[in-house]
Amino acid sequence: MLHTPLTELLGIQHPIVQGGMAWVATWELALAVSEAGALGIYGAGNAPPDLVRGQVRQIAQRTQRPYGLNIPLFSPYVDEVLAICVEEGVPVVTTGAGNPAPYLERLKSAGIKVIPVVASAALAKRLERAGADAVIAEGAESGGHSVPVIAAGGIADGRGLAAALALGAAGVQMGTRFICTEECIAHANYKQAILRASERSTMVTGVTVGHPVRCIRNQMARAFDELEKRGASEEEILSFGTGRLRQAAMEGDVTSGSLMAGQAAGLVHDIVPARELVERTIREAEEAMDRLASCCRGEGS
C-alpha cells in the first residue's frame, strides 16, 4: 500500500481521488470508489439542493468510509449546497471554478476537509494561508506547499500516479478514467466514445467566454469552435453550449452533445468495476516505483 500525507489527512487507503464530474459522478460511483479505499466524490454541478441532499444521504447511509462532494463555485446553489455539507456532515468538500476563501472558515469549523482545485501556484499559496487542507493542482505547477498537493490532468493509470508521487505530489485525481467504470451512470455511448479516443482526439472550447472545456472532438465541438472563431457574442455561445453535457452523458448523443474528457482518454481501454480500477492503479504504481528503485540500485531495467 502507498501511504502519503494525503492518505493520512483523509483517512483513506490509497492516494487516489475520483474527480467530482457533473452528471456522471453520482452517488453510485462515489460510493464504489470510497468502498475501494480511495476518495469517492459526488459531483454536485448545478444540481438543486434537494437532489444534492438525496445524493449525499445515499452515500452516507451505505458507507463508513470518507467521501466527498465537489461544488463549482459558479453554481447558483453554492450557498445552499455548502449548508447541506455542514448539516449532513460531508467529510470532504472539493471546489472548482473560483476562489473558495470566503467559505473556508464556515466549512472547517464544521470539521470538513476543504480541497480546492487551483490553476496557479499563486492561488494555491493564498488558499494554503487561508486554511485549505490540500490543493488539487490542475493545469499548472503548484509545488512548494506544506499542504498535500494532489496532481490532476492526464492521469489514468499507475504510471501516472507513480510519476506524480515522484514529482512530490501526495496523490492524484482521476476523472475521465472513472467514467469508464461499471458503477458510473454515464451513457454507454459516452463511455464508448472515450474508449475509441486517442490522446489527440480532444480539443478545448469556451476559452473566449472564460470557461474553457476540454472535450472529445465531434460535430458539436467543431460548431462551438466556429462560433468562437467568428466572434459570436458571449450570450450566443453560452446559449449554444447549455445542456450539451447532459445531452451526451445522460442521453447518449455523441454527435450534438459535449463529450467532456481529458487527454487521458487515450489511456482508457476498458470498462471495469471501480474497485478493480483502484487496485490495478495502485499495483501498477508500486511496480513502476520498484523498477525505478532497481534502476537506482543498478540492478538493470
Describe what this molecule looks like in 3D.
There is one protein chain. The chain is an alpha/beta fold. It has 13 helices and ten strands. The relative contact order is 0.13. Mean pLDDT is 91; it is low at 140-145.
Structural features:
single chain, 301 residues, alpha/beta, TIM Barrel, two-stranded antiparallel sheet, 15% strand, globular
Let me know the average pLDDT: 91
Gyration radius, in Å? 19 Å
Low-confidence stretches: 140-145
**CATH superfamily label of the largest domain:** Aldolase class I
Largest sheet: 8 strands, parallel
Tally of domains: 2
Total helices: the number is 13
Query: How far apart are the first and last residues' alpha carbons, in Å?
Result: 23 Å
Number of strands: 10
Structural class: alpha/beta
What is the helix fraction of residues, given as a range? Answer: 40-55%
Percent in strands: 5-15%
Principal-axes geometry comes out as globular
Instruction: Please identify, by name, the CATH architecture of the largest domain.
Output: Alpha-Beta Barrel
H/E element order: HEHEHEHEHEHEEHEHHEEHHHH
- This entry's quaternary arrangement is single chain
Strand order of the largest sheet: 1-8-7-6-5-4-3-2
Q: Remind me, CATH topology of the largest domain?
A: TIM Barrel
CATH C-level name of the largest domain: Alpha Beta
Concise structural overview:
The chain is of the alpha/beta class and 301 residues long. It has 13 helices and 10 strands.
